[in-house]
Amino acid sequence: MMESKNFIFEKIKNERPPVHTTPKGEFRCVGLGTESLEFIFNNMQPGSVTLETGCGLSTLVFGLTGCHHTAIVPNKSHIQETIKSAEKLGVSLDYVTFIPQRSETYLPTLSSAQKLDAILIDGGHAFPIPMIDWYYTQKQLKKSGILIVDDVHLKTVSILYEFLKRQPEWQEIRQHQKTVFFQKNEESGHDNEWDFWRSQPYNTNFRAKFSQLLTSIKARLKN
């Protein structure tokens, strides 16, 4: 008898298969928390077009919900262990595509015609990879689409988080521990402008202006 999606999802949450490897080759699970996985499971529909940088528990849940999902991850062992876990748990990966490349290499090649219902940024965390992942995927995200940013407690990702929560086109809809969910309410509206930094609240709020003034004063004192 085929197990229900709800039953399989409970197994994913409870077992949290260790699909990631440490530099020493040890297996561990560093996937999304339970509430974040529940949000994906409850809000993604069969046929939704989704993309993530990284792979793991989230990939299993995207696959379970029937999304046409792309996971971009250069670590082949992560892909292999995710596939093994899917087979063990009974998760179909028929509509999941793994791209074994670095996201900063692959994402600039994305077709602008591909429209996404949801994006999860949870790949490389070294500067400036989270920003690159966002930059090359956000235009493909549909209006009212969902952007998920994981590991906002890390310095590099927190920069992206602080930027997004000040931008009027992005609405923070929930946060579960270190994972934040945004809804895209509109396009940026600056496609025809080259340098529109003054239109970004992240660059023009009081804190930003004070920092700019302080840097300017320090530079003049050095001279």
**Uncertain runs with pLDDT below 50, 5 residues or more?**
none
CATH architecture identity: 3-Layer(aba) Sandwich
Residues in helices, as a percent range: 25-40%
CATH class descriptor: Alpha Beta
- Could you describe the largest sheet, including whether it forms a barrel? 7 strands, mixed
Task: Report mean pLDDT, rounded to a whole number.
Answer: 89
Global geometry: globular
Radius of gyration: 19 Å
Main β-sheet, spatial strand arrangement: 5-4-3-6-7-9-8
Sheet/helix structural class: alpha/beta
Number of strands: 9
Number of helices: 9
Give the terminus-to-terminus CA distance: 77 Å
The CATH homologous superfamily is named Vaccinia Virus protein VP39
Strand content: 15-25%
- N-to-C series of helices and strands: HEEHEHEHEHEHEHEEHH
What layout of secondary structure does this protein have?
Elements: H1 5-15, E1 20-21, E2 27-28, H2 34-43, E3 49-53, H3 57-64, E4 68-72, H4 76-89, E5 96-99, H5 103-106, E6 116-121, H6 129-138, E7 141-150, H7 155-164, E8 170-176, E9 179-184, H8 201-204, H9 206-222
Parallel strand pairs: 3-4, 3-6, 4-5, 6-7
Antiparallel strand pairs: 1-2, 7-9, 8-9
Helix pairs in contact: 1-3, 6-7
Walk me through what this model shows:
β6, α6 and β7 form a beta-alpha-beta unit. The protein has one domain: Rossmann fold (3-Layer(aba) Sandwich), CATH 3.40.50. α1 packs antiparallel against α3 and α6 packs parallel to α7. The strands form two sheets. A seven-stranded mixed sheet has the order 5-4-3-6-7-9-8, with helices on both faces. A two-stranded antiparallel ribbon has the order 1-2. With 223 residues, the protein is α/β, with parallel strands linked by helices. Helices cover 39% and strands 21% of the residues. The radius of gyration is 19 Å and the shape is globular.
